[in-house]
Design brief:
Largest sheet: 8 strands, mixed
Order of helices and strands: EHHEEEHEEEEHEHEEEH
Shape: globular
CATH architecture: 3-Layer(aba) Sandwich
Radius of gyration: 18 Å
CATH topology: Rossmann fold
Helix content: 25-40%
Strand content: 25-35%
Number of helices: 6
Structural class: alpha/beta
CATH class: Alpha Beta
Length: about 220
């Protein structure tokens, strides 16, 4: 199931607009904060899909029956671009464990590249809820390879994929390669990829915009 938050008008679409705006992008602090805000809103919406349990809370005047998340998810992200969205999710799932995976493109030509996964720090995820975030889902290959790498830590009982912007091609690819029950929460869906597999209109290189150009 794909949840496209831009299908409903809200303040959320202003955050996506600012992420795309090449003038506002010149302020990296603002760009990082917008990634964080996008992830916070998505985290709120995604939380409605989790399991809850009843607890009793003592107040100064009595007791209140409340529903709280029964099990904290594991938050995984792809270095380095995913750090901003990871922080946004962590702001809301503030007791969650975290996993970090390094994945990058290695180009042989401008159009041809392979995805390499080189580093991972992750807790056990067996039978847990796993939320993987990355600002951009262009082809979907990086997300799929990161998921496969995380399986070394166990098999999650439920997977959520979170992105600011996804291409239609990436979502089709992931639906074919990720578990059938995976749910996708995205800020917007763009229809076009360039020959170099960059999303159009997209927003550019999220990692460079957030943290500076890499050598």
């Amino acid at each position: 199931m794909v949840h496209n938050l831009s299908q409903t008008n809200s303040v959320f679409t202003s955050f996506i607009k600012e992420l795309r705006d090449e003038v506002i992008q010149k302020d990296p602090m603002r760009f990082r904060r917008n990634l964080e805000r996008v992830a916070e809103v998505i985290g709120y919406e995604l939380s409605k899909k989790l399991s809850y349990k009843a607890i009793e809370v003592t107040t100064p005047l009595g007791t209140a029956n409340m529903e709280v998340i029964s099990e904290q998810p594991v938050l995984a992200t792809i270095l380095r671009a995913g750090l901003g969205m990871h922080q946004g999710l962590l702001n809301y799932f503030d007791r969650a464990e975290s996993a970090f995976v390094s994945a990058y493109r290695k180009h042989s030509t401008a159009e041809d590249f392979e995805i390499y996964v080189e580093y991972m720090a992750a807790p056990q995820i067996d039978n847990k809820v796993l939320i993987i975030s990355d600002p951009m889902l262009a082809t979907g290959s990086s997300m799929h390879l990161v998921y496969k790498a995380l399986l070394a830590q166990g098999t999650p009982k439920k997977v959520f994929v979170v992105a600011a912007i996804a291409s239609s091609d990436a979502l089709q690819y992931l639906k074919a390669h990720m578990p059938d029950t995976t749910e996708y929460f995205v800020g917007a869906i763009d229809e076009e990829l360039t020959a170099q597999s960059y999303i159009v209109p997209g927003l550019g290189d999220a990692g460079d915009l957030a943290y500076g150009e890499k050598c």
